[in-house]
Amino acid sequence: MKLRTLLLLSAVPVFLLAAGGCRKPAAPAKADALRNAYDVEVDSNDATHMIPLSYQQAQGKRIFYADCVWCHADATPAGPSNRSNLTPVPPLLSDGTVLNGVSDDYMKNIITLGGSALGKSAMMPPWGRTLSPEDVKAVIAYVRAVAQPPYQAPAQAGSPYTREGTAGSPSK
Amino acid sequence: MAPEEMGKVSYRMRLVFAVCSLLFVATLAVSPVKDLLREWKHYKRGYLNLARSRPDTKRLIADFRPDLDQIWIPEMNVVDRCTSCHQGITQATLADANVPQPYRAHPPIPHRVKEWGCTPCHRGQGAATEVAEAHETTLAWEQPILPGRYLEGACGSCHRDARPETPKLNRGRQLLESHNCAGCHHLQDIQRAAMPGPDLTNVGTKVSRAWIYKWLKEPRTVLDDTGSVKVNGYEMEESPRMPQFRLSEKELTNLSAYLSSLRSHPVAPYKFSPAVLAQWSKRPDVVDQGELRFRQMFCSTCHSFAVTRAGETKMIGGEIGPELTKVASKVNPDWLVAWLLNPQAYLPHSKMPRYEWSEADLYKVTRYIQAKLTDSDLLSTVPQLGEPAKDEIAEGKKTFLEKGCSSCHAIEGMPPQKDFGPDLSALGSKNVSQLEFGKSTIPRNLISYIQSKITDPSSVNQAARMPQYNFNAADLDAITTALLAMTGPPPTSALQKLTVPRPNPQFRPAGEFAQVYERYQCADCHKFNGFGGDLAPDLTYEGSRAQRQWIDSFLKSPQTLRPTLIFRMPQFNMTDREAAILADYLSMVMQSPDVRPGSLNVKDLTPAQAALGKQLYEVKYQCQSCHTIGSGGGYVGPNLNNAGNWLKPEWVAAWLANPQALIPGTIEPQRSMTPQEIKAITAYLMTLRQGGGKAAQKKAAVQGMSRGGNGVAGQ
Question: What is the ipTM of this complex?
């Protein structure tokens, strides 16, 4: 009788210690993607859908609305867009059907060096002396984030992941 | 006990001893097991597994250590163990969105994680080693991490200046300032404004008691179901500054009695001359003429009002002045005329310019406002209040002080109450236990507390004196961000050194210029040496940019240089003398150190250069994509049809070389033009002249501009 009591008594601290050691980690609150996004942008196809943006993409958004929006969007913060004035008509920067087909390097070059350097319209000025390389990267990251249809980074041969050296934007 | 049994251990005792020993070993074993099962070790192992599944395993685990990682920066109070779990944070190849958290690389930011740690930006508990404790508010740890949406608030703890990278924070600070939160609360970096709300010393001469009652009871701003701000029933971007107080019927009656009794300086009715009355009072089109004048004067640059165009009624206009849709049902007609003639006579700090009116214009515009910007039903819901009684006035005065009205509104002989509301200068670092949530059911954290307090203070505190503000969702987030940035004085001297102070630009001109500058309130819209509004071009270097003659004629008759702009320079009807004073001062004082006056003379530019410049403009650089010459070209940059009369050649040359050096943040990109190209384009632009009649063209010819050149080009 005594033995059983002793065993039972000793089981209590063992159980307590074991329970303490095996405690399941507290689950963090469910993350809300939009609340945790640095900034958001309205989907160009669906005004009720918000696209979350990282810090870099948000900087790209800021630069887009300061410098690019005048010709690469249909509406600007200051009224009608200049886009319809231009021939050839510049692509909308959210137009994935056009821009998903060009590489990050090509976009970097045409933003930095201007249209004429790449045999395109000289109306696209070079921004390399105005925007820093980080700014240009940010704009590309933003364009990739808002593209409709969504942009898919090209996969490298032999790897499901992007290899180092081509990582230009966090959307990859 | 028998002696033979001494020293002999019974079977039972052996068993007890064995069990106790096992128990002891098991107890000791718990510690290593517990250690092995630690949350962060689980994530360490997970990272190893992830790294092994990827092609660049070697590089991913080059820095891997099995123990706790820590970034320790004593001078900044940083002890961050976040990288123990977030191990891929600096690995560029883990930037992919399908890399599971916590291993994903950090998106590119200006600060290196190794140098700054994590908590200075994300807050949360750097020293914690469990997921919940590091990220959320728990019993032992109070500061949760900032959700990404409010992350700019952390930027603002050190960056007290307005950086372009933090638009939300800047907007929030602007709102805190424009809504005069500093009137009641002590805020970090934001001082109490000189005149936050209108001075009410004479408000009884301006509005009726019924209107005051209505205004206090139902302010014209409401938030609709979608969270948009509506003013007078129309959507508007920014809410008017006056918040909504929760006042009882008695308080409304008393306050309206008190305020309407404030008429120490009665308005003398303006007597229009018989000639003007005879000419205009009977004309059927006087209201239309008044509207035309109202539009021509560009009152809408500062004031908004509802207009109906193509069957759709919406609010248009600026936000510097109050909304005017129903203003004629608000103000006393005599007061309106007196106000239009001299706003500063009623409110010395008013932003409204003192226009130079012709009597006929004043009559027409007043008639238009009274006929069209009115709503006869506005006061129909107000009960009959009658003349204010003595006891009502006394009670109203008490309510005025109790509600903190004097924090924003001055009344002669009634100084503002100091520190009426709580000190908010360290609100961002407050712990949840320091906040009072009352009976509300909102989540127990600082952000939801701030937002409930602003939108409905009574939800967290029944007795709160704070009024209710109707901000749309974006503005509410902006204000929250700015308040989260207020974390009090930096905790260490190193951080104090790192903190970028808030600039406080001042521009205090003197003499004749100051009088005209103040009369027309130039700094409402224009910036001078960093001081002033940003609605209109920065005039800091206007003297280097524009020719004096052009400034003078522009001030007298502003034509728009940018056809797509909604907000335009009002027609002030300045006198010749005033325009000359402004033009002289701007062209002499507001000069850029980078543009040497006279360094490029129009006389030295040849027609051959101008011809080359035209080529460069149209073909190589295709400036017409943004600028208009003749009738073709873009709307982004200013119209250049009159560049020869407007711009100084040395400015054009310096501008083409590096626009950002002259006006930081301008849209025009810097090109790599050679000095010859710059001279050629300058020469071309200086040939573009328009209007000004024969005299101006003759003058141009004398200046040598037409030496074989094409005179008026670009037609």
Answer: 0.83
